[in-house]
Model the fold of this input.
Amino acid sequence: MKRTLFLAALAMLSLGSLNAQRQVTISLTNDGKARLEGFLPAQGSGRAVVALPGGGYTHLAVNHEGYDWKDFFNERGIAYFVLTYRMPKGDRNIPLGDAQKAIRTVRDSAAAWGINPADVGIMGSSAGGHLASSVATHSPFESTPDFQILFYPVISMVEKETHQGSLVGFLGDNRNDNELVAEWSNMNKVNRQTSPAIILLSSDDGAVPPLTNGLPYYEALVRNEVPASFVSFPNGGHGWGYRDKFAYHNDVVNVLSNWLRTLPSARNDARLTGKKIAFIGDSYVYNHHDPREYTWMYRFARKYGMQYQCLGRNGTCIAMDRPGKPDEAIYKRYTQIADSTDYIVIVAGHNDSSRGRIDSIGSKEFTKQLTSMIKGMRERYPQAQILMFSPWRSVQADTPDNDAALASYKGSPREKVVKLEAKVCKKLGVPFFDAAADTTVQVWNPEFRKKYFQSPTDNAHLNRRGHGLFLPVAEKFILENIK
Done:
């Protein structure tokens, strides 16, 4: 599929005459009813925007909320795409699928179009704003935009709060289903991993009330500590888009231009961007009870525009099965890693060192299975670079004192496992991060755990804040040890 899209893009590539603007057109459906038209700047910054015009889910205002914006973005080095999406007629999955596919298509063709796949945003106006915010809050990793630009967006699906036509078009006969209404009132779906957003509207918008749509979405972003801007003009009504007769047109241009200029650009590292990275291990990789999107692993992959695969499993060991859980050991299930993966990161050992397991299996057997796993990875994924992280340090008693904690760690089963991991990795030339020796995560300190772990008694699983603390440490190690 990716190759087909890539070839189609090249086949339909054409050059404009005035500003060397290149134009591409991609059909997203076999009948051509959903299509993506792209306008690529001569000198690109790597950033891209996919625009979803409004129209109340009955038609599309493709000019002033679509094509008219192309020069604004191209002049700023931003690739610009207008999506002609299909009307839902009560089936929300139709436009949602078109919009998600549009994001994936831009990322799949990023190399051909000079785009950073980790810097692809979405722009939506009115009902298109509802669709854009739906993509931002309801999509899997590969379809989630990296930022949002929302003009006078429909957000709520509550009948008395929203635009009636958009509600009927999107939910159809299900518009009285309270669960669906809540699900697709997108302020309810914002979380800490939602993309940064700017919302622009008029205070006197009589079609889509700002107080029950754009404003609640902004408030939800702020509550979840997502960078967000909210700009309300005193008048102008609804649907002004890029129309220069709108009294505040120049203000719109200046505000959006400044917001885009100050929006952090995604990292573009030729070694990582667009590549596949798999994390395999235990509940630390799975993230136990918290969303995997909170982990430093997910955030690292997203930061560099990588394709992310999580192969963490609660309770798993490197070298032995657990009772009642056949084939759970990592050395047996590493073959689940996707083909053509570029980077494999092993984060494991916690369970091997718990409850006397390392003593029951023995150091020789542990070494044998870890060795066989890494050699097997190299044989099966010859192009992949492999790295390994040890588990945190374990201690016999809580203490805020690092020296006392280190003394308690000496001679423990955890130390035995970490030393064996380090020995195998050194022998096989695998970069190894000794998390037990690093003091960033002070697992021995009860006050630290209260703040950075999923519970005060947890000694294995970081919370969102903890993952954020460890991300730069892990990032530095990875960047220093890959080719």
